[in-house]
Structures are given as structure tokens and as C-alpha cells.
Amino acid sequence: MFAKSICLAVVVAGALAISAQANNDLSRELTKETAKHVAPQEPQGAGLLNVLQRGSNALEGTWVVTVNLAAPPPGFGPSFTALETYSHGGGMVTSNNLTPVPRPGQGAWEKRGNQFAVVIQFFLFDQNGAPAGSVRVTHNITLKGNDEYTGAGEAKFFALNGSLLTTVAFTTEGRRLTP
Known about the structure:
By secondary structure, the protein is α+β, with helices and mostly antiparallel strands. Helices cover 24% and strands 45% of the residues. It has two helices and eight strands. Strands 1-2-3-4-5-6-7-8 form an eight-stranded antiparallel barrel. A hairpin with a 4-residue loop joins β6 (131-143) and β7 (148-159). The protein starts with a helix and ends with a strand. Mean pLDDT is 76; it is low at 1-53.
């Protein structure tokens, strides 16, 4: 009886293996056949056509951005690098290597015509970690192909009581971060 059970198990396992192989072969054939009828995808960086096809979602993803300050305030260099991640639905997060304010920021974005409007909020802290104010950034972005953008905007620095301290104009150049 035990020998019959083992024999039956081997036969069932063999049948399952043959069935799985047949399914894999069929799946490969269907994939090849389907590929004949699907338009080939453009490679990344294929240009304006690709951007237009992606529509309002073209900004989604992570970007490495060079920010150039028109007139840096005291203690700031003329430029810095930021990482900006734009998510589906209009949210965004950012971080930067700016000194003295290497802070994460959060914001929102939307498509407006052939540009994207972005607003970002940062909190400022003093050297002891106590709240010191905030920065509100407004930024207009124009895509240059699928993987590059240029932009311009301003950063408004506010004291804790909400009074405007200074406004700094800037330009940007972004490159999509890709694997």
C-alpha cells in the first residue's frame, strides 16, 4: 500500500511538472504574440512627444536639482543641490544640502498650461533646535524633454511672528533620477 502511494505521488508530481511547463511555454508564446501588436515604447529621454503623452503626470518621480540663488543672503552659497520627489495626486517632498538650512520640505504641485506650479514649505530652527521661522518657496517648472527641467521662483523667509524677513529669487535645473 505504501509503495502504491509513493508511485501515485510520483505520477501526480510528474503530471503537475508537465502541466507547469506547458503553461510556461504557452505564456511565452502569448507574450511574443502580444508584443507584435503593442506599439514599441520610446526610450526615456525621447523628448517632448513623451512628455505630452504623459500629460499632467510628467513631473512625477524624483529629480536631482541644482538651485542657483540670484542674490544669496548672508551665510548662503550661490547654489546648492536638492532632491525633489513629485507624487501622483500633487504632493511632493524635498531635501537639500543647503547650509545653514539643510531641511526637508513638503509641498504641492499642479500642471498649469505647459508648466508646473510648485509650492514648498520649510521650517527653520535656531542653533539650539528651537523654532525660528519658515520658508515658503514658489517655483514654476518647464520640462525640457522627459528627463530635464528648468525653472524659476522665489523663497520668502518669515520670522516666527509671520513677518517677512527677505525674499530670494532663484533659477533651477533638474534632471530626473533614474535607475
